[in-house]
Each structure stands twice: as structure tokens, then as C-alpha cells.
Design the sequence.
């Protein structure tokens, strides 16, 4: 019997289209002998949709105007199983049941733990990081604070909220100056290099901050690394076991790998349009020493475990090629293209990578099911009033 796999993608995020690209890539590579693939698209209006037409990129070119063959749905639990139900009409009808969900989402409102929390609440097994790992991976400030407290190498940085900048711009600019130019200005909770600006001198800093604020209310500014080489590693596993891919050296057209480098420069590719991160110019293995490669791979496992991640992630590094000092830039908890191109270099085909990710999720779900999640006793059964806890005196199982 095939596994009914719901692939969830989209969402109200500036990385909406990137998510569609990544999801359709994965769907094309899933083993159809093992999985019945059910697309679950989260529209920009936060409504869930399903339908076979969602398996083709053309469905998204004018989705708001043409939803032929697409149904609005909700995901719910009924009689111990999980169903997609039609939400239109007076009576909700079951469209299909779903065994496991594979979220392929990027950015705020989905990848940041929001979607994981929704799936946890329903109780359905799903692939990838759970709420805490997803949230830590999305917020560049909290992520740095956690990694820095554990001795993970990170660049010098400052951060602030938009209101703090608007209230006292000079104080923020003074702190930026203390870092020393050049710097990199980033929205704290976005990915795919959206809103990121490399700033060489003080005259351009305000424009860069204003741009970042247009995307996010929390901003991080990092000291730029001299003699920069950008290297990425992918990690596959969970808290018990981790495997690390070969390293890639990423070649960007800008001072940093930009959104344009990742997606727009290849947008005219035939088929699914841009191939996303899979089409970025790269060298594998990265042109660094074996010793440095080993250090970065070991650090990647440490970061993966520290942030309590699961499934596959990509961890990006900044290296000063003269000193060979390296810094963790950020982990991508659900990376573009799921970093399949890195695993292919070690002989793992995309379909096998997806299969292992799904197997990890099912194993985690079974292990979690063995834990105590709630108590059979109901303390409210003895509750007989609204005056504090006096009505609970007769409830069983309340002793410490």
C-alpha cells in the first residue's frame, strides 16, 4: 500500500514563489511507486487548496484569476485518521486521507514554526523541524544568541527593532560605525537573501536599513568578513544521528549571494521556470583544505543538534580565505531545493533523500507516540465552581 503524502507549500511570505519552485522539484522526484502525492497549496490569502492542476507550474501564473480543478480544503483529524475536507458548501466532504505531510515552505508565517505548530496541534506526522527548531532557525538574532552562548563561531553583529531606529537613529548608526564598514544589513526573520544589502560605507547605510525595515521589524547588521568565501553544508538526520554532505563553494555575482543570484538569474529556464538554489553557480567540493572541511562538517552536526533540527537543512558559512577563520552565517531549516544537489555529489539521488527524510519523520512520530502527552485523569471532573481551585479538592491525581 502506498503512503499518502501531502506536500504543503506556499504561504503568506515574500518567499512564496520560491516555495512553489522547491515543492514542484521535490514532487517530480518523489518515488511514485511508494507515494501517492497530494499537493496542499497555501495561497497568499492563507487558504489551503488541493487539486491535480497544482502539480504544474502554469497553475500559479494566474492563480487568483483561474482556480479550475482546485478545491478549498481544511486538514482535520477524524476517527483516528487525517483528512482533507472540502470547505465549500453546506456539508464538508472528505476528499482524501493523508498519512504524512512534507512541508516545503520558506520564510515567515510558515517555515518559522507556525506551520509546524499547526501540524503538531492536529497530530499528523510531518517531515522537518518541529516548532522550536524552526523558530530558532528563522530568527537570525535569537539564532546567533543561542549559537554564540554555545561557542559556535559567529561574526560580530548588532541588532535592533524598527521603532528603536526611528526613535534614535543616531544611536543605531553609531553602533553600526563601531562594527566597522563594510557591513551586511539583513531583515532578521527572512530567508532567500530577501532585503539583504552589502554596505561599503556610511553614506549608504540609511538606505539599506530603510530597505530592510520595509520587510521586517527586526534588523540585524553584521560585520562583513574579509577575503570572503561562502561555503554551504547540508545535514540530514535528527537529534539522534546526523550525516553531512560534501561542501559547496557558492559563486555569486554580488558581494554576497543575493536573491537575484539564487532565483532571478535563472528565471527563464524551461519547465518549472527557475530551478532555484539547484541552478546557482557552485563548485563541489569547496576549494578549502581537508582540515577546514572537517571542522565545518563537525560544526554543522553541532549546530543541527543544538537547534534541535530534523529532516534536511543547509548551514551556510563565511570564511576568511587568508586566515581560514570560519563563521556560521545561518542554518536554513527547509532549504531551497532541499539541498538535493549537495547529496547527489555523495551518491544520494533526490528520490532517496526524500525517502530518508520521510522515514525519519515516521520514526520520530512513532517515538513521540510512546511518550506521555496527556493524563487520563480529568481534574475538571471535580471542579464545582469558579472561586479559584477550591472546587478541585475532590479531584483524583492532583497530589504532587
Sequence:
Amino acid at each position: 500500500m502506498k503512503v499518502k503524502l501531502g506536500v504543503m507549500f506556499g504561504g503568506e511570505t515574500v518567499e512564496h514563489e520560491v516555495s512553489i519552485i522547491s515543492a514542484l522539484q521535490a514532487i517530480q522526484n518523489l518515488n511514485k511507486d511508494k507515494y501517492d502525492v497530494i499537493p496542499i497549496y497555501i495561497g497568499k490569502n492563507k487558504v489551503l487548496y488541493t487539486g491535480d492542476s497544482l502539480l504544474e507550474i502554469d497553475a500559479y501564473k494566474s492563480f487568483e484569476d483561474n482556480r479550475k480543478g482546485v478545491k478549498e480544503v481544511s486538514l482535520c483529524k477524524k476517527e483516528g485518521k487525517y483528512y482533507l475536507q472540502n470547505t465549500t458548501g453546506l456539508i464538508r466532504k472528505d476528499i482524501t486521507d493523508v498519512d504524512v505531510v512534507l512541508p516545503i515552505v520558506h520564510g515567515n508565517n510558515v517555515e518559522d514554526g507556525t506551520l509546524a505548530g499547526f501540524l503538531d496541534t492536529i497530530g499528523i506526522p510531518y517531515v522537518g523541524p518541529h516548532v522550536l527548531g524552526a523558530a530558532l532557525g528563522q530568527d537570525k538574532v535569537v539564532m546567533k544568541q543561542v549559537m554564540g552562548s554555545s561557542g559556535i563561531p559567529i561574526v560580530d553583529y548588532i541588532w535592533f527593532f524598527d521603532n528603536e531606529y526611528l526613535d534614535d537613529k543616531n544611536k543605531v548608526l553609531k553602533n553600526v560605525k563601531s562594527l566597522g564598514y563594510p557591513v551586511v544589513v539583513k531583515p532578521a526573520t527572512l530567508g532567500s537573501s530577501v532585503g539583504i544589502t552589502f554596505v561599503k560605507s556610511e553614506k549608504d547605510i540609511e538606505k539599506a536599513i530603510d530597505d530592510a525595515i520595509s520587510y521586517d521589524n527586526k534588523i540585524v547588521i553584521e560585520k562583513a568578513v574579509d577575503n570572503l568565501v561562502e561555503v554551504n553544508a547540508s545535514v540530514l538526520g535528527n537529534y539522534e544521528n546526523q550525516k553531512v554532505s560534501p561542501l559547496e563553494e557558492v559563486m555569486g555575482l554580488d558581494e554576497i549571494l543575493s536573491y537575484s543570484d539564487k532565483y532571478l538569474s535563472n528565471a527563464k529556464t524551461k519547465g518549472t521556470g527557475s530551478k532555484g538554489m539547484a541552478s546557482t553557480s557552485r563548485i563541489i567540493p569547496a576549494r578549502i583544505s581537508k582540515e577546514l572541511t572537517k571542522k565545518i562538517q563537525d560544526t554543522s552536526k553541532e549546530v543541527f543538534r543544538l537547534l534541535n533540527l530534523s529532516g534536511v537543512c543547509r548551514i551556510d558559512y563565511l570564511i576568511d580565505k587568508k586566515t581560514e577563520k570560519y563563521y556560521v552565517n545561518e542554518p536554513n531549516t527547509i532549504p531551497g531545493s532541499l539541498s538535493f544537489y549537495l547529496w547527489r555529489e555523495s551518491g544520494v539521488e533526490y528520490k532517496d533523500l526524500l525517502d530518508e527524510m520521510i522515514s525519519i519523520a515516521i520514526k520520530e512520530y512513532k517515538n513521540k507516540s510512546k511518550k506521555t502527552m496527556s493524563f487520563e485523569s480529568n481534574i475538571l471532573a471535580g471542579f464545582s465552581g469558579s472561586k479559584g481551585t477550591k472546587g478541585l479538592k475532590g479531584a483524583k491525581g492532583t497530589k504532587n
In short: The first strand starts at residue 3 and ends at 10. Residues 265-272 have pLDDT under 50 and may be disordered. The chain has three domains: 3-126, 137-153+226-365, 157-223.
